[in-house]
# Entry
Amino acid sequence: MREEGIRAKPKKKYKATTDSNHHLPVEEKKLNRSFEVSAPNREWAADLTYIRTAEGWLYLAVVLDLFSRKVIGWSMRETMEKRLVMDALSMVLGQRGGPDENIKAGQIKLSKPVFRALP
# Structure
């Protein structure tokens, strides 16, 4: 290897990307780790992740129905911004009814900033 000028590429150290040391409001955990749901459309969960591509990072937001464990809404963007989450939630509400009827039926609980931002 030395004669050919080839050498091993060292593995990079793990770097945490979550900044938990901030003063932004944090929503309380409403599900209390209770993921057993009796019917569809009662409880939804959402998550964000990022995917490395040849062109850079791609950010993905998904919404799951906890009853069926199926993805019911998703959104992808090149930047992680509020619109990423709002687009995923808008997809769900477009397919499963508007926010007012779901909230009145107790099917979804939204944080105040998310509810205000809905179209």
Observations:
- Residues 44-117 form one domain.
- Strands lie at 44-53, 56-65, 70-77.
- The mean pLDDT is 78.
- The first helix runs from residue 82 to 96.
